[in-house]
Amino acid sequence: MKTTDLISVLVADIRPAGAALSRKLILTVLVGAILAFIGFLIELGVRPDIGNALVTWRFNAKLAVVAAMMALGLVECIRLCRPTAKAWGMPLWGSAILLGIAALTEMVMSPSASWGARLVGSNSVICLTAIPLLSIAPLAALLYAMRSGAPAAPFVAGGMAGFAAATIAAGIYALHCTDDSPLFVAAWYSAAILIVTILGALLGRKVLRW
Amino acid sequence: MGVFALPKDNVTGSRFRVIEGRSEKSAKPVTFARATANIWQNNEMQRELDFAELMRAANRADAGAYRQLLTLLAPYLRGIARRGLLRAGRADVDCEDIVQETMLAVHLKRETWDEALPFLPWLHAIAHYKLVDILRRQGFREYVPLDICDELPAPDGDAEIENATDAGELLSRLKGRQREIVVGMAIEGRSAREVGEKLGMADGAVRVALHRALKTLSVIVNKGAL
């Protein structure tokens, strides 16, 4: 086919530009998050002492840190949909700093003899399985939405999709988990999030090419 | 602004005469490098404004503006592709394939351009991605990414539009009904209704099928069926 023919084909297919990518992405992710939350309510459920937990700084810090990581991840996903965007892995560094600050605060506020017990917690295995499982729906939604984008580096963009999906899952799982110590969050939540990030990157390399 | 190593065909082309004209009027001695940098900037700025305006119109479904934009893009992209292939030492790869795949990507990924942002960096990013992608598909793995802002201007190849009777083989990969629709609407110039009557489809369905066919095309291409 001649290039002039291709031009005719493309002109024949003209249509007004659709809704902004960011809006599509947020709406799709919302669907994924709701699905994950339904799954969470069926399988795990909110911890029984949620009322008491909501007034402790540790529980609130856990939610705040995870929410901040989620915001960083989603903003990065939207940004990476543009082919001009360069990826610096900013959400990863940002999260490391937030988690580090939270962990240091915990180490200042609690006796050093209790650090070990706080770090190991009681639920690490559930944490490592529940967060990846809860990420499935948000990750699928994010990758689907990002397919209409044009990421210059599909591997990195997929990784960021995995990261954002895992933080959504972590936010949901945090309502069940009774290990509120920032030391536990910094160790186990990040491990679970990292697993999904790598998975997302591997998937992204396949599905986010365009 | 650094010194540019202009491609050969530019030095003997119209650019050179413009540079001489400028240096006569100017009080300061104008070095060749500075003059070419100025001309380059002016040309690129004008191009940026023109392309961006046409693209904005195209986003409002202005077919005339869109055709004009794509017609202007063809020689510009040909320049980018040829330069990229030269740098990669792969003059054997068909540059028209890169041009056509880039155009298809521009079409399908239009929404990733923010109308408030410059158009050319976006275009270069897409062209660069496609260039690297095609080279990789053809087994080239050592390509050093260029900084897209350092791109040289594309040669103004008015003559190249006619010369491009070219071997791009993008459309030949569609099959069956999708192919009939694309060929009917675009190459034979029929309307959606005419094609629909021939194939027994509503014209809305024909339009949807055309869009799908283009998406299919980009997927086929991506699977490396070259």
Account of the 3D structure:
The complex is a heterodimer of chains A (210) and B (226). Chain A is mainly alpha-helical. Chain A has helices at 3-12, 21-43, 50-53, 57-80, 90-109, 115-120, 124-146, 154-173, 182-207. Chain A contains nine helices and no strands. The longest helix of chain A has 26 residues, at 182-207. Chain B is globular, with a radius of gyration of 20 Å. The chains are: A mainly alpha (210), B mainly alpha (226). Chain A binds chain B through residues 1-18, 20-21, 81-84, 148-150, 152, 209-210, and chain B through 58-63, 66-67, 70-71, 74, 96, 99-100, 103-105, 107-114, 117, 121-122, 125-126, 129, 133, 148, 161, 164-166, 168-172, 182, 185-187, 189, 207, 210-211, 214, 218, 222.
Main sheet of chain B, how many strands, which sense, barrel? Answer: none
Largest interface, by Cβ-Cβ below 8 angstroms: which chains and how many residues each?
A-B, 30 and 53 residues
Report the span from N to C terminus of chain A: 21 Å
Low-confidence stretches of chain A: none
Short key terms for the protein model shown above:
heterodimer; A: 210 residues; mainly alpha; 9 helices; 74% helix; elongated; B: 226 residues; Arc Repressor Mutant, subunit A; disordered N terminus
SSE topology:
The complex is a heterodimer of chains A (210) and B (226).
Chain A lengths: L2 H10 L8 H23 L6 H4 L3 H24 L9 H20 L5 H6 L3 H23 L7 H20 L8 H26 L3
Chain B lengths: L7 H4 L2 H12 L6 H28 L3 H25 L7 H14 L11 H18 L20 H6 L12 H12 L4 H8 L3 H20 L4
Question: How do you describe this structure in short?
Answer:
With about 210 residues, chain A is mainly α.
